[in-house]
């Protein structure tokens, strides 16, 4: 399924008036595809991501996740939706210093009630997918910045979300490591068949994005889609 934002308007109090953060924004992100959202600081990128994550309720418009309209859901229902349907990769990994790479992932599954063995197997599968199977027993201070970000990405995928939201994943990385992380996100999007939204200020490594949306002053401009289509699996390259 996909992520759909339809006619989203979001405003914040600003003295006696209201500041418009998002102005009638609509965006569709199909399963197995990667949408990059770019724009200057303060343009509305972070607000768009927060609305897509159901962390902020817009003034008007609808957010649909995996076919479910989130309008009117209670706080508890939204929490449950995020737990099962939405993976979020925050700008800073915020890994727990006392836990190993594998344990960072396992704790997510255990919160969801999975058995320890099942959680361990899934954690090792994802660490292998991000190239860190041999680092499973290391703690954050024993990992490089790029490795910590890879653990962060794997952790967001632990509960098999249908939507993956990624916030500035390369901001603390050098050029080479940043390019590797963006490539990894693109590959995992297709492998895990997620509808992925990537907010970034780095336009230099977006060749694997299926579409690039630009946000300026709360308005979204979406060029002609470049979605790769064919007879393969959703999001699979065919040429």
Automatic annotation (TrEMBL):
Keywords from the UniProt entry: ATP-binding, Nucleotide-binding, Transport
Pfam families linked: ABC_tran (PF00005)
GO molecular function, one term: ATP binding
Ranges in coiled-coil conformation: none
Domain ABC transporter: 3-239
The name this protein goes by in its record: ABC transporter ATP-binding protein
Source organism (scientific name): Streptosporangium jomthongense
Top-level taxonomy: Bacteria, Bacillati, Actinomycetota, Actinomycetes, Streptosporangiales
């Amino acid at each position: 399924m996909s992520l759909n934002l339809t006619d989203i308007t979001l405003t914040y109090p600003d003295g006696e008036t209201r500041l418009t953060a998002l102005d009638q924004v609509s965006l569709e992100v199909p399963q197995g595809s990667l949408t990059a959202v770019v724009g200057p600081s303060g343009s509305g990128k972070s607000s768009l991501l927060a609305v897509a994550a159901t962390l902020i309720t817009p003034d008007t418009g609808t957010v649909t996740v995996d076919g479910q309209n989130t309008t009117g859901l209670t706080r508890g229902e939204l929490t449950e939706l995020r737990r099962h349907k939405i993976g979020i990769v925050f700008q800073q990994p915020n890994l727990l210093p006392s836990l190993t790479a594998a344990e960072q992932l396992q704790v997510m599954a255990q919160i969801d009630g999975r058995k320890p063995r099942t959680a361990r197997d899934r954690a090792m599968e994802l660490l292998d997918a991000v190239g860190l199977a041999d680092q499973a027993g290391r703690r954050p201070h024993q990992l490089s910045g790029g490795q910590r970000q890879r653990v962060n990405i794997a952790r967001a995928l632990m509960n098999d979300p249908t939507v993956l939201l990624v916030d500035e994943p390369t901001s603390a990385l050098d050029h080479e490591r940043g390019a590797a992380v963006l490539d990894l996100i693109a590959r995992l999007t297709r492998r895990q068949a997620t509808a992925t939204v990537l907010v970034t200020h780095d336009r230099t490594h977006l060749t694997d994005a299926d579409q690039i949306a630009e946000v300026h002053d709360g308005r979204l401009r979406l060029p002609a889609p470049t979605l790769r289509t064919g007879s393969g699996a959703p999001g699979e390259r065919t040429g």
